[in-house]
Amino acid sequence: MEQGWQLLHRARNCFLCSVARTVRSVILMPRVTNFRQCGIASILMLSMSIIASMSMGQTRDIPKEHNGWGRFSPGAWRTARIITESFDDEGNRTGTTTTVERIALQRSRRGYATLRIESVLEVGGKKFDSPVRTISVGYHGEEIGNRTLMQDIGPEDTKVDGEQIPCRVRQYEIESPGQHKLIKLHYSDECAPYVLRRETVTTLGEDEDPAYRNQLEVTALDRPHPVLDEIKTTSHQKMVKTNGKSATTKWSIHAGDVPGEVVSYRSEEKDNQGHLIRRSTMELMDYGYDAPFDEIEEVEQKVRRRDKRRSRRRG
User: Fold this and answer.
1) How far apart, in whole angstroms, are the C-alpha atoms of residue 170 and residue 95?
2) What is the pLDDT of residues 180-190, one digit of tens each?
């Protein structure tokens, strides 16, 4: 794989050097009119820009097959239950909310996926339907329409669970009004879940100090894990998010054949003094590859019946 990259870049560089030499010789030809010089030089410079942009395009986007939503066809969905507990300064629990969330894939294109999100929030025994949302998510973490610049830094091994895995290190700069986001990721096109490490630094306005920092790393590969009524091969990931006031650590489990990949997670948010602010758990309830026909309430009933069957088997 590495030899292929080296040959590609060597061939491109040789071509560009050859074109540059030709441009220089054309411009320095004494018996050629200025008009002809400019015309030939412009054509050759255009060729250089096309080749450079082709090289950029070959490495800009992560293939949609390597994204947790992009690899599926429209209609794929998953339903999950998220339980969140809040705590006061003394560590006493002050409230619990339960959210049943369904995410369905509307379309996947090169570079981004469009998702429909519907959820039901339960607080104090009462349920509230949240407004349906539709969002488009870039495969590198960008919002659609923002300017993205990519730089291929080069090869670097990434250590996962004691194993060194060859990766390409890529850097993305994403500009949006009032915000600059720098993403550096370690990408393997052969080892799922493909993005093995990612660091995102976000600055606001003219500030140079980061307002937010996210660090994700894959901690384990090819681990068997129960998912609903099956045992699936999964990867384990750890993400740390900081915003200057608190830090959130999330431990998640991912299965490549589940839309969105995430089958469960637990997270803790602590303030700068180490006090627990919030704790959440997520559990996959159901998933499918076609447009869901069941209402969320029906999915909850099906999950309760499945849990009862499990309890009887254990008993």
Assistant:
1) 42
2) 999 999 999 99
